[in-house]
Amino acid sequence: MFDKDVWQEIFATMLKHKMRTGLTALGVFWGIFMLVFVLGMGKGLENGVFRGFGNRAKNVMYVWPERTAQPYKGFQPGRVPNFKLDDIIAIKNNIKQVEFIAPRHTLPASAVSYREKTDKYQIRGELSDMIKIEALKVYEGRYVNENDVAESRKIAVLGIRTKEVLFGNQTCVGKYIRIRGVEFLVVGVFGPMQIKPWTEDDMEAVVIPLTCMQRTFGTGGEVDYFACTAAADVKVSEMEPLVKGLLKERHHVAPDDPQGIGGFNLEAEFQSVKTLFTGISVFLWFVGIGTLLAGIVGVSNIMLIVVKERTKEIGIRKALGATPNSIINMILLESVFITSFSGYLGLIAGTAVIGGINYIMLVNNIESENFYNPQVNMTIGLGAVILLIISGAVAGLIPALQASRVNPVVALKDE
């Protein structure tokens, strides 16, 4: 394989037919480039869609109280259970399948002020796990943490639009605001990962610890609804009946009542999106490999022409004692070199273009709802390289076998 004379001969042949070699290489280059490009862009589309889920892609369920439909234990239908912080603690302590649980209680729009600026905003009481579940991002400072909850600290995290209205371009972390006349220390600024019409509430809310809300504003530990995620290797569909069952027991709701404890989980939606992108990925591989195969067929055809042109030369080689294996190796090496080299350039070019698109989006702060961080992962790169080597061998195999079967006597008579 590393015979100097063989490689000199291969390069001499390629240089002699520059146009033919260049067009052959271009076919393979374009095939690999398109394979990498479409897969990279497909990954960007997938990242964009899943980014909208945020951490909710970890099997999340939302639970809220609603009117009961059946009488039970002396209670009449039409009653609405009243969730409390104690219910959240009971779920944490009794259902091991739950990983994170994040309740929320919302006060009506309330006066929030900083110095002479005052406006009304939604006040949310939460625990520390909400940021781990919802598609939210901390832009400055931090979010509510466990110590804030345990000590009922008077701290607040502002939505990005709330911060802009009250503080403008100033830093707000470390300063005090007044909520319903009570002072709160601002510890952070949060907002949605993607700004969409339905994220307005997140941008204009003020979050405080749920325990602080209970103590300061006398909410009695009430919870409007909560979100929870399933632990590793647990499906939310397996966790859902356990959570609802415990709540029905605590709030005297009939076990077979279809109402009383409402809920919604993203498992089915998330799985359908995953299935969709699996299908898209298969389709993109099909298109990319089809384009690559077109280039490989071109290599094989060119190698057949090369064998035809060098029939007399091959006959002389065999007459002088060259073995069929040496003839096969010579043709295969040329084919593998052309496909590997041009394909490697296509791989680099495709990766560079995908990286360039990602860089331009980051530098110019371009946000798209359904496209984010296009990338070519290592698996695709290694797969493309392996595919190149195999393709080069396959492309040269038929011409190589044909060359090895050349009859020296017939070849020497060929003009």
Output the keywords:
2 domains; six-stranded mixed beta barrel; 18% strand
Question: Would you kindly provide a brief summary of this structure?
Answer:
The chain has 415 residues and is α+β, with helices and mostly antiparallel strands. The chain is built from 14 helices and 10 strands.
Number of structural units classed as domains: 2
What does the radius of gyration come to? 33 Å
Proportion of helical residues: 40-55%
Which parts are unreliable, with pLDDT below 50 for 5 consecutive residues or more? none
* DSSP summary: helix tally: 14
Structural class: alpha+beta
Largest sheet: 6 strands, mixed, barrel
What's the rounded overall pLDDT mean? 82
Counted beta strands: 10
Query: H/E element string?
Result: HHEHEEHEHEHEEHEHEHEHHHHH
